[in-house]
Structure formats: C-alpha cells, structure tokens
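Task 17 of the worksheet. Students: predict the tertiary structure of the chain below and write it out as structure tokens. Keep your answer in the requested format; marks are given for formatting as well as content.
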Amino acid sequence: MNPSAELLIRKGGARVEVPSIAPLEPHSLWIAEIAARQFEHWGPLTGYSSVAEYSSFLQDAASSTELPRVLVATRCGRLLGSVNLLTSEMTVRPHLTPWLGQLYVMGSARGQGVGEALLAAAAQYVQGLGLPRLFLYTSGTLPNYYRAHGWSDVEELTYLGKPRNLMQLDLESLPSSR
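Model answer:
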C-alpha cells in the first residue's frame, strides 16, 4: 500500500488510474465524510446508532495500528472510497475474525476499480498481520462481486432479519505481502 503510487492499468480496454490506498489518519477531514456516507448507506449495520457515534469509532480506528483499521482510496487528493477492517462484525459468529465491512465507493468513482483496489489492500493488510483469512457478510447480488474477487461462501443465514451470505477470503492462498 504505497500512498503515493498512482499507476495506470487497463480495465475493459480503457486506461484507469489506480487509486492510492492508505490507512485513515487520525484527525483526517475525511472522517466526517466517511461517517456520513457510510451511515447513510448502512445505518445501524455499522454497529452504531448515530453518525456521531460512528464518527467516534472511525477516529479510534484511525489511531489503531492493527484492528480496527480503515483504509481509504484517494486519487489526486480526492476521496474515492473506504473499507473497514474489524475484529468482529457478526454477533452470531463471534469466533470468526477478522472482518471486512463497509466497503464503500463514492458514486462518481464506481466502475473504476476502486472497490477492487480496496479489497486487495484490505487482504494485503490483514495478511501482513499474519492472519489466515478474512470474513464478510453481504446480501443480494453482491456475493457474485466478492466471488469474482476470490471470496468463497461459508454459509447462508438469516441475520438481522434478512438473508445474508457469510463469505471468506483464504489469505494463505494469496501471494505473501511480507
């Protein structure tokens, strides 16, 4: 995760600039924007009851050196998206850790490889902590997105009143980032 690396790649025949990915910094001006956008999108699924509480969590995560951690994608000083790395996410599966949560890409940046770059950086970060796998839960058509990026199904279950797919990424099968 080199925050200054902004390379060009080909995506569907078009040149797309790869975003810089870096951990969220303490006291970053992006904390308020990330909190507002993610809370608007997920609300209580963030695990918090208000934007203010969620913003406080993001500030704490920005000060963490392991987990929780928030990674942000930027290009030319503009926020493109973020993803959370958590020790726990699904209360009915407390033994599973760590978790990827709240992968969010700004509307204007969708379809430009930002989500893919955040997923890769998240996997690299967790792999660097020496952990063998990463978990997430999702629903709707999103399991197909994650499967296309190497995630596999663990189980289907009802969680918080809705059908969910619990998925994992085997980090031991990925090239080492150490």
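Marker's comment: The chain has four helices and nine strands. The helical segments are 30-42, 51-63, 114-128, 142-148.
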